[in-house]
Write a structure and sequence with these properties.
Length: about 725
Amino acid sequence: MRSRMWSWTTCGLAGAVLAGPVLGCGTDAPTSGACANENIDHNAVLRVSDAAGNAAGIAYDIDVVALQPGGAREFSFRIRNDAQAVSGRPLVVKAVALQETDGDGKPVSAPAFACVAHDGKPCAPAGFPAVIPAGFDPKCAPAGALTQVNFSVRYTRPAGSDLRKYKVAITFSGDVKQGDTPWTATFATRLGSPKLDCTPSTTDFGKVGLAQGATATVLCANDGKGAAVLSAATMLGSLPLQAQLGPYTIAKGADLPAGKTVEIAAGTALEIPVVFKNLASEEKAQAILRLTTNEPGKEKVDLSFVVNTTGPCVKFVPPGPIDFGVVPVGVPQPREVQIQACGTEDLAITDVAVAEGVDQGFAVSFASTCFNGKPPSAAHPVVVPKGATCSLGVSYTAPQLGASSKGKIAVTSNAGIAAFALQGKAAATVQCPKACMAVKLATGGSLSGDVLPQSKLKFDAGCSVPGSSGQPIAKYKWTLQQPAGSYATFQPSANVKTPQLQPNIAGKYVVTLEIADAFDTPGCGPTSYELNVISDDKLYVELTWDTPADPDKTDETDPATGSKPAGSDLDVHLAHADAPDEPGQPDLDKNGEPDPWYAPCLDCSVWNVVGKWGKSDDFDDDAALDRDDKDGWGPEIIAVHVPQPNLPYFVGVYYFSNNGFGKSTPTIKVYLDGKLHTAKTGPTMDMQDMWCAGVATWSPASFKPCKGSDSKGDLWTKKYPLQPNKNLKCP
């Protein structure tokens, strides 16, 4: 029997010998020689990405308004071949098609777009070298082949503001899946859209006599990106008003001349003075200046002007009907209505009441300041100055399951009787109570965004809603997910309505609330609140530790009674780069250079809580011990708000006292610019041990082992003598 002869090659992955039959190397046509193998289907995989790393081949948009004539906008692209090096083949550009038209799709005489190949020449098939996969054997590649090829599309704004469209279509060979379908990208220019805001939209001239006139000004600001064009203006109504629209006077019967426009450039405003001189009577009159604009969706803008709208009037905000929705039985649902004095005279309210003949459950409340807790009367009216508002409380208490109620509140005043409608519905079946929590700082301040470590927070379940039984919420259960190494607890307990919590270490905390009512009806489900606890200091060092012999890491020593310590005591150290150079510093860790620990002023710890470093008049580059813990687990925190760049800071831990609890294992976390850079658990330490955890640099960000560290990156010195007898504090 004849044995089959196999040939061996290093093609495909450059420099690698393939243990098997020849796999060959892809070329544009791998059909012969060492770069071919009939047993492998060679194929290229086309990938084109834009500057953002997104898959390219979509539509790109250019705002012409953002460019001055002659200004340019460039889009960069990268062609890659993502095939495997062993089975891949080169990508070859067969054709490049470029098409530019105006906004209507018609050819242009002077191009504004250009496609530029990697060599700076116009895009053409000959200007693109073959593209091979990474690791492809160069002996099997066409001459000049690259692993990626860049090209760009550049738009240069012409002197005019005409709109353009541009299409790039590149056809490749080598990718079987892509075939002869070209990769395409389209580009279109646009004029930025205007955004017109005219204020005031309504101008009330008040009371004006026959011999009097009045003037006012409306300001139309264009906050958009494109020019606002006023293409028509008409004055309507009975008020003999004239408006000055740029160089044109607009009045009744005198519109903006046909073919004329007024332009408001982006970022500018147009003042429109308005005036009238003589009135035919002192009766109410109105005019509307109607503007036609090019703002999409706001083609018509009406500016209203009124005069002699005399007397008081009532306006409700919201206007009604007020819908209380589906509510639990027996639980008052409050709402608030604003009574607005909209006339030219003060509004005198003499009575507010639920109208007769309506369904049960509706009520009014006079607790607001303007009513002063008392209903109004003819003898003691509530006067609302013109233009002002008065708050009125209304409520609905569903009387029984399934009840559907409609009501009306009547307000009697010197403007007559005005009313607004109410409606509400009771739940058809008993519903579960709904858990709700509000979160604030314990000091009363509002909470927004990230939370600083050691912030005391107050959680309040008072916004929880009873179910349709109407029974009050009676049971609360707060639970906490917290970062590893944290032992924060709710105070005074996790079963009260308004507990407090102090997250001391950085990380993510999730607070969850579950409730039940007086009937033990459980809540519809828990509700949760996520806290991101992070320092705003650029360098933030956090120490926690685990002491297995400590049964309760959350208990604390009572300073009033002087009771036995509740846990072990470790100290965090942060030493300045100049600390080893301080005269008299010993080399107790035997690493060949003076130690940084306990250097006067230059080692921040419990013995020197503030390190006056850097500039003398700048507190931001000082180190500060933000928290010292003596009984259990930490955290101990040292922070530098804005460290000195390119300066190393030594991070260390000293086991001050085990207080009878034995050995402890420390963990150091280093945050740089608010992000966790390094988390490192050290050796198990005994009392008087010193651990040099590492050297931190803020900018550029790094954390490196101390000199002399072991294979684990630890420099651990046993029985390191405490040196508090030095004058360690800064002057």
